[in-house]
Design goal:
Shape: globular
Distance between the termini: 21 Å
CATH class: Alpha Beta
Order of helices and strands: EEEHEHEHHH
Largest sheet: 5 strands, mixed
Strand content: 15-25%
Number of strands: 5
Helix content: 40-55%
Structural class: alpha/beta
Number of helices: 5
Strand order of the largest sheet: 3-2-1-4-5
Mean pLDDT: 92
Length: 160
């Protein structure tokens, strides 16, 4: 069975997800999109929506790993706390399903996908689309797919 990875781009309003499967030297796009929690509902309702959607994705795709970008900055302290709560919900969904979690700094993700650690979001999205042969519907999905690709690139065995 070829390994499946669920990449997640954290966000309290829009949480991106990307599901990829490794097939030899290539990757197959299984699913991607965003969980639209919005901003008008109470945080606890948005967290529940994100959790439920991730549980469903994990049940549907049975990933062998969940890949996340490390949190490196937030607009302010309040935003950082909210993002931390979203991260906690994602970690809980993965942990309850027994899915190992892997973290990657943004610079590492960009370098793995684009070859340049200071790449723009547009460059990352373009490269993700080229590598997978799909058009992504939003930046959140592209970022989630990028972290999933990064995981595969970092966990491939040496080539003989």
């Amino acid at each position: 069975m070829n390994p499946v990875v669920l990449g997640v781009d954290l966000g309290s309003r829009n949480t991106g997800f990307g599901v990829l499967q490794e097939e030899g030297e290539r990757f197959r796009h299984l699913s991607s999109g965003r969980i639209r929690a919005g901003s008008r509902r109470p945080l606890e309702a948005r967290l529940r929506q994100i959790y439920d959607a991730l549980v469903g994705l994990i049940q549907d795709h049975q990933p062998q790993a969940l890949a996340l970008e490390e949190i490196f900055l937030a607009a302010n302290v309040h935003s950082a706390f909210i993002l931390g709560q979203v991260r906690g919900v994602v970690l809980l969904a993965a942990a309850q399903a027994g899915v190992p979690i892997f973290y990657y700094p943004a610079l590492v993700v960009k370098k793995a996908v684009v070859g340049y650690g200071q790449a723009t979001k547009a460059q990352v999205q373009l490269m993700v689309e080229q590598l997978l042969g799909v058009k992504t519907d939003c930046q959140h999905a592209a970022d989630a797919l990028a972290v999933g690709l990064c995981h595969f690139f970092h966990h491939r065995g040496p080539k003989i």
